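Reopening: tRNA-guanine(15) transglycosylase still failing for me.
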Amino acid sequence: MSSNFEIIEKDGAGRIGRLKTPHGVVETPTVMPVINPNLRIIDPSEMRNFGAEILITNSYIIYNKPELREKAIADGLHALLGFDGPIMTDSGSFQLSVYGEINVENAEIISFEQQIGTDIGVPLDIPTGPDVSYEKALAEMTTTHERLKEAREIVEQTRIGAQSGEKKRGDDMMLAGPIQGSTHIDLREKSAAYLSDLDFDVYPIGAVVPLMEAYRYRELVDIIVAAKKNLNPVAPVHLFGAGHPMMFALAVALGCDLFDSAAYALYAKGGRYITVNGTYQVDRLKYLPCSCPVCVAHTADSLRKAPNLEELLARHNLYVTFEEIRQIKQAIADGKLMELVELRCHSHPQMLGALDAVFSHSDWLEQHDPAAKSTFFECSAVSANRPEVLRYEMRLDRFNLFGTALIRSYPSQKDKEYDNILTFKPPFGAYPVELDENYPFNAEVRDVAGPESLKKAIENTIKLIRQNPNAQFTFVKGRRLNQFDDSYFEELKTVCAVLEKFED
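Support: Ran it again with your exact input. Result attached.
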C-alpha cells in the first residue's frame, strides 16, 4: 500500500520519507525501540524524549501471558504500553526461530494484532537463517508466502467489513510482508517480487540478525539489494533486527527505511556502551566519548559505580542511536549520504568489505541517485566506484569533439593553442573545462590521486578519446601525475600524445 508512504528527499538509494499509520505519521529513516512487555528498562512513555516516533513489541508474548492479554484486549495495545504513537508488533517469529515451535497459528495472531489495535502487524513468517540448504529455504519461504497471503486476505476482509458496518479497533491495521530466502539471493529476489504483487504496507527483510552478529555485512548488502530490486521503489523497507548505529548509514543508502533496536537494552544488560564506531565494555572505558545527558553527568568511573548502571547505559545507547539517525537525515538533505557511508564503513574491516559490495551494485545505485547535488567529496579509494563516476562514464558519448584537444590538470599558457581544452580530474577523467564549476566536476579530491582513482580516470579518458576520432588529443601529465610509473599511461599513449609537462 505505497500510498501510505511519501518520499520527500533522496540520496543514493536512501530517502527521507513519511509513513502514514493509524496513530500518526512517522518520518523515516528511523529506529523502532523494542519494548519487552515483561521487562521495561525504560518506560515507553519516555521514548519520544530520545527521538522515537514508533515502537515495536511482541504480540506473541502479550498473547501468551493472560494478564497482558486481558489488558491489551480490554484497553488496547497503546494503553498497555503507555505510548500514544504508532506501534508495530512482531508475531512470534523470533520465538519460532529460537525454540523451533510456538503455540499459536498465523490466523490467530493476525486477528489478535487487530483486536489489540496494532498499527503495523506482522504475520507468522518462518525466519530461515543463513546457510541452510536451498531446498529447506525454498520450502520455508513457500510456507511464509502462504501465511502472508492468508494474512493479506484477513486484513482485506476486515477493511471491507469496516466500510459497511460499525468501525472497531484494528480495522485499519497495516500489514508487513517479511521477505525470506536465507542467503540464497535468487530466493530473496523471488520472495520480494511475489510479496510486492500482494501489496503490503511495509516490507521487512527478515532473518538477517545472524549475519550481522557474525559481521557478514557483505552478504547482508547483497540480500538487501536483491530485495530492493524486486520491490516497488516507493515501498517502505524494514531491516529486521538491525539495531547498531554503526551500520545504519550503509543500510539507509541501500534503501532501508525502518530499523528495530533491542540492542540499546541488550547491550546495556551486558555492560556495553554503544558508539557509531563500535561497542565498548564500560569496565574498560577511561573516558566517555559522548555528549549525551548521561555522559555529561558522569565520568567513566562514576558511571560504572552507579546503582542504575543498566538503565543509564540503555539511555546512552538510545541517545547515540537517534543521534546517528539525525546525522543520516541531514546527510541525505545535503546530498552527502555516500560520503557518510564511506566514513562509517572504515569503523570495521568487515564493513569495508560491505562497502566494496555496495559499489559492486553501482549500476543499480546510479538509477536511484539524484543527478544533481552540491559537491562530490573523495573520501577513500573506493570513491572511484561511486554512482556519480559511473554516471559520467555512461554519458561520455554525449561529447562530440573536433580539431585539437588538450587534456591537462592545470591551466597553461598553451591552452590558447588548442581548439578544445579538457580538465583531467581523477576519478572522473577528462571533461571540457567549461564544466569545471558544475556538479560533479566541482569535486573535492586528493591533491595526489590514489592508484584506484587514477586508473578509473585514465580508463574514462581513453574511452572519451576513442569516441571522438575526429579530434587530435594531447595529454599533459603535470606535477600531480609525475610520481606515477609509466605503466599507468601505456594504453593512453596508444590513443594520444602524452607529455611530461609544458615548460611555461
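The chain has a mean pLDDT of 94. If you still see a failure, please send the error message rather than a screenshot.
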